[in-house]
C-alpha cells in the first residue's frame, strides 16, 4: 500500500499495480490458495475467528485502486476485484492439470489485463 501511495498518478498505474499484485504470488502463496480452496471449512472457521481476516489486504488494495478509476461505478469496482482475484481463478482452473506456477501466474496476468481493459467500457 505504501508503494501505491508513493507512485505518480499515471494512466498505467492501475494496470501496473494489479499486475504487480498478480506477479507477487510465489509458489508458497499458490500452495496456500490451493490449500484453502481444498479446505473450505477451515477457511470459513478462519473468517469467523475475528481479527484480521483473510481478504483484509485485498479489500484495502481495492479501495486504494478504486481511486484510480475515473468515474467508476459498482460494476467497475467488481471487475477490478475480479482482476485482482484472477490468481485465484487461475489456480482453480489449473487444478488437476499439472500446470506450473509460472503458467498459472501467466494465465492470471492475461485474465487480469483483459478485465482491466473492460473497466469503464459498457456494451
Summarize model confidence as the mean pLDDT.
86
What would the principal axes of the Cα set say about the shape?
globular
Low-confidence stretches: none
Alpha-carbon Rg, integer:
15 Å
**Structural category:** mainly alpha
Draw up the topology in text.
Blueprint (H helix, E strand, L loop, with lengths): L1 H5 L6 H11 L3 H12 L1 H9 L7 H11 L7 H11 L1 H9 L6 H18 L5
Helix pairs in contact: 2-8, 3-7, 5-6, 6-8, 7-8
Walk me through the structure.
The N and C termini lie far apart (33 Å). Helix 2 runs antiparallel to helix 8, helix 6 runs antiparallel to helix 8 and helix 7 crosses helix 8. The longest helix is centred in the last third of the chain and has 18 residues. It is globular, with a radius of gyration of 15 Å. It has 8 helices and no strands. The mean pLDDT is 86. With 123 residues, it is mostly helical.
Task: Provide a quick synopsis of the model.
The chain is an all-alpha fold.
Keywords:
mainly alpha, about 120 residues, about 70% helix, single chain, globular, 8 helices
Amino acid at each position: 500500500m505504501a508503494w501505491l501511495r508513493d507512485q505518480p498518478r499515471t494512466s498505467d498505474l492501475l494496470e501496473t499495480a494489479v499486475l504487480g499484485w498478480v506477479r507477487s504470488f510465489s509458489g508458497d502463496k499458490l500452495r496456500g490458495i490451493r490449500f484453502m480452496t481444498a479446505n473450505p471449512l477451515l477457511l470459513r472457521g478462519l473468517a469467523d475467528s475475528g481479527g484480521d481476516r483473510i481478504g483484509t489486504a485485498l479489500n484495502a488494495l481495492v479501495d486504494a485502486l478504486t481511486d484510480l478509476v475515473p468515474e467508476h461505478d459498482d460494476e467497475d469496482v467488481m471487475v477490478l476485484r475480479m482482476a485482482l482475484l484472477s490468481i485465484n481463478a487461475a489456480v482453480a482452473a489449473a487444478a488437476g492439470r499439472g500446470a506450473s506456477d509460472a503458467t498459472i501466474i501467466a494465465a492470471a496476468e492475461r485474465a487480469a489485463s483483459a478485465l482491466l481493459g473492460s473497466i469503464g467500457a459498457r456494451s
